[in-house]
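Worked example (supplementary).
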Amino acid sequence: MQINIESESSQPPKHGLILLQVLMALLFVVMVFRLWHLQILQGEHNAQRANANRWREQQIYANRGLVLDARGVILAANRPSYAVALTSEDCPDIPSTLAKVSQWTGEPMSKLERLYRQSREEGLPKFSPLILAHDIKFEQVARLESQVMNWPGLSIIAQQRRFYPQGDIFAHVLGYVALANAREVESYAGLYRGDSVGKQGIELKLENSLRGVKGRVVQEVDALGRPLARDSKAPPVGGRDVRLSLDADLQLFAMRAMAGNAGSIVVMDPDTGRILALTTSPSYDNNLFTGRLSAKDWGRLRDDERHPLQNRAIQSVYPPGSIWKLVMAAMFMREGIGRDETVTCTGEFRLGNRVFRCWRAGGHGRVNMLRSLVESCDVYYYQMADRLGIDKLTEFAAAAGFGRLTGIDLPSEKPGVVPGREWKRRMRGEAWQRGETINASIGQGYTLTTPVQMAVYVSSLLNGGRLLKPLLLEEENPVERGRVPSTEAERIFLLKAMREVVENRQGTARRLKMDDAVIGAKTGTAQVVALGDTRLRTEDMLYQHRDHAWVATWGMKGDKRYVVVVMLEHGGGGGASAAPVAAAVYAYLFKNKKPESVPWRNVAASGYITQSDPAEARGLDEIIRASKQWEPFVGPDHRSAESARRDKDDAGS
Amino acid sequence: MTQGVERRNLVSANWVLVLLTLVLAAIGLLNLYSASVVRLGEGTSVAAYFQKQCLWMIIGVFCMFFCMFLDYRRLISSAEPMLVLSVLLLLLLLFFGPDMGGVKRWIPLGPVNFQPSEAVKISVMLLGAKLLAKGKDPLTWREFFPILSVGFVPAVLVLKQPDLGTAIIIMFILGGMMLYRGLKAQIIKVGVLVLILSPLAVDKLIMPRLLDYQRARITGFLSPEKAPAKAVYQSDQSRIAIGSGKIWGKGYLEGTQSKLRFIPARHTDFALAVFGEEWGFTGCVALMTLFCLFLLSIYTTIRETKDRFGGMLGAGIFFYFFWQILINVGMVLGLMPVVGIPLPFISYGGSSAVVNFCMVGLLLNISMRRFVFRAA
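After joint prediction of all chains, the assembly is encoded as:
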C-alpha cells in the first residue's frame, strides 16, 4: 500500500525508531510491574493502611465510680474540667499561638514553650492534642470557645476531673488520683499514658473496681480528621460506686475536735469492725493532686515538718504508753496472776543498779490489778513483767494483734513493733536485756503501735475476743483475723477496769464521764524522750519532746456500741489532752451533737459546693449527673477555615 | 505544494489515534468526576471540575481539528518568531506577571488563564524539529549546542516561575528528539558520563538552587525516613490509594482515599491514584495499555511519514506525551519524586487539555500528509 515516492534520504532514522520502540516497551513493562507490586503483592497491606487512614479508634473514658459515705454523702465525684489543647499539625504558627494561650490563661509563656518542646521530644503524634492549660475557669470557657475558632490548632477539650467535695477532711482515707506514671501504665490493663489512676488511699486500693472499663468508638474521618461516621465498638462501663462505712458528719466533727493538733482519731464499731471515722491531722487538700500539682504546693506538703501526707491512723507508729497496760493485764491474767495479787508501789522499781520509776513520785502503795489499771501504776507492771519474762509478753501481744497489719483496705499500713528476743537479735543483733522487759511492760521502749491497731484490740474486748479487720466498705461483712487469748471473764474484768478509769475518782479519764452513757477508757502518755528524774510540765517542753497523748475508749448507749481511740502527737498527758477529744466524739455519738456548718450539707441546700469558687459553682445534682453520664465534649469545628484553604490548594496545583 | 485538504489526506489520517485520544479523554472525564466527589458529613459534595473540564475538552477537540487541517509545513517558517514571542512572553511574565500564590505561571485573559510555558513547549518543539530535520548524519558537537540552547533559555525562564515540571519537560522533549535523530558516539559517551556524575551535580549545583518544597520532595523521595512528614505524605497516600485498589478496585466512586481527601491534588497530578484505587490492577493495566497504544499509534505515523520535518515534529510529540506519562505515572506509583507534571487527558487542567489535543491534531496533520511529496 505504501507508495514510495520519497527519496531514500527522507527515511526516518533507524536507530531513532528502535529507541522509541524500546522506550514504549520499557514504559509498559516497568509500570505494569510496579502496579503488580503495589496492587497485588502489597495490595492487602495497602488496603489495611487505607482503612487505618480513615478509621480512627477513640477511647471513651468510663466514669470513675463515686465514693460515698455510709449515708450517701458524696466524698469523691467527677466533674467536667475544660482544658486548652494544641494540635500542632493544624497550627500554622506555634509561637504566636502559644503567646495567645498565655495571654488568655495567664500561664507563663516559658512554661507553655517548655510543654510544647517536651511533647515534641517525647514523640507525641502531631495530630494528638497537647493540653496547654488545665482546668480553665468556667466563665472563661465560654469566652475562649468563640476565640479558639480563629486559631487553627487550638481547641477546648473537656475532661473528667476527680473532685473531692470535702477536701482535707477525707484526704487520707480517699487518697487521690493523678496522671499515671510509666510503671502504673504497665501494671494496670487498659490504662494508658495520660490517664489518671488512684495513687493513694481508697482510690489506689479500689482502683480496679472504681476505674471501670473504657469504651471504644471507631470513627470514620477524612484527611483533615473531620468525623464522618461513628461506630461504637463497646460502650464504656462505669466504675463501681463505693459506699464507705464512714460517717461524713462524724469525720468532720472529729477533725474539728482535733483542733489543729497532730494526731489521729479512730472510731470503730466493735461488733463489725466498721470504721466510722478515721482522721489524721494535719491534713491536706487532695484536690491539689488531681490537677497539675504545682512545685510550690508539692514542696510545701513534702517539707512540712508535721508531715501532712502521713496517714497517722495506720502509718504512724507510736509507743502506746499506758494503754499498753490493757494488753499486759490481760497477759498477766492468762499467765495465772490473780487479780487480787498485790504489788507494793514505792514509786520505783530497782533492777540491779537501774531504777525504773512510777509516774507518781510517791508511789501508789499496795496495788492490785484493778487499781494498777485505774491509777495506771507502773511499778505493778514492772514487777509482774519481770517475773513472767519477755517471751510471754511477746507471744501475747502478737496474739492480741500487735506487730502485724490489721488488714484495713488502705495502702502502706505499718505493722508496728512487738519487741522480743528474736526481734532484737534480728534487728539489732543483740541479746535481749532484762531491763528492756521492764520498759516494754508499760508500752515504752521498742513497742510501737498504730491507732487503728489499738481500736481493733479494744473492740475485741467488747465483741467476744474477735480481732476484726477494720472495714472501710459499707457492704463488706465482718472479717475475723484472730482471737485475743483472753477468757470472757478476763475481758469483762478489763472492761470494768476501763469503766473505773472513767468513773473512779482516781481514774485518769474522768473527763469522759457521761450521764446517760457507759464509757470505759484507758489513757496513755507515751514518753518521746527520756528526761531523767524531773518531769517537766508539758507546756515547758519543746514541742517535739512532748509526750504523745493516747486514750483508748469504748462507749455504750442503748444498743449502740463504739470504740474510740484518740492519739495526739506530742499532746502531753493522755487524760488531760486526748480524753477531751474523745469526749467530743462521744458527744456526737450519744448526744447527737452535730458539727456546726457542714459544708457539704450546704451543697444540697444551696446548690453550690463552695460559695468561694464560682468555677465549681455547680449543683450537686449536676455533679452527680456529670459523673454518671459522661459525653465527650465536642468543640467547635475550628478546622473549617483550614480545610477550605487546603481545598483551594488542591485545585490550584 | 499541497495546500488544501483532499479526500486522500482524510483517508490516510491516523483515525486510530483520534479514537484512542477520545477514549482516554472520556476516561479522564469519568475519573475527574469521581475525583471531585468528596464525602462531607452524611452527604457528598461535587466540585465543579467536571463541567469545566468537559468544556475544555470540547475546546480541545476543536483545536485538534484546527491543527489538523492547517498544513503543518507552514509552521516551519514561523518557528523562530514563535519561539522569540513565547520567550518574550515568559520574560514579561517574570517581570510583570501577577503573583498567584507565590508563582508566576499564568497570564489572566478574561475568564481563563493563559500559560505561556505551554506555548514555549510547542515553539521549542517546532524549532527543534526544524533544526534537527536538516542533514541526516548523527549530530556533531557543532550542531548539538545550538539546538540544546533552543530549549535551555526557555527552560531556565520557566524554572524561574517556578515550574520545575515544565522546565524538565522542555529539556526532555528536546533531548528525546536529539536522541531520536541520532548523536555522534562521542556525544553519547559524554552524555553517559554526565549521567553518572549527575547525582553529584544535582547535590552540589541544583539542590541548593531549588525551592524548599522542591528540595523536600526530592529528599522525601530519596530517603523517606529523613524527609519532613508532609513531603512524604503525598506520595505515601498516593501509593496507599493505588495499592488498596488490589486486583479489581474498590469500584467507581467508592474509593475511600479519594472521597475522604487523603489523596493530595487528586484532580490534577494524582488523578491516576484516584483511578487506581477505584479500578484496581485490571483498570490500571488497561489504562497503561491504552497509553502505550496511543504512543504506538504516534510511533506508526512517525515511521510512515516521508517528510523529515514531520518525522522530527512527530518525535517531539511522541516525547511530549511519553515523558509526561512516564514522569506522572512514576510519581504516582512512587518510582519518582513528586514533580508537578499532569497525566495527559486524565489530569484536570484547561491549558494542558487544549495543548494535548493540539499536539494530537498536529500529529494527525503529519499523518494525513505522510505520503505527500514535498515539492520544493
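Two points are worth noting when inspecting this output. The longest strand of chain B covers residues 37-40. The beta strands of chain B are 37-40, 43-46, 107-109, 112-114.
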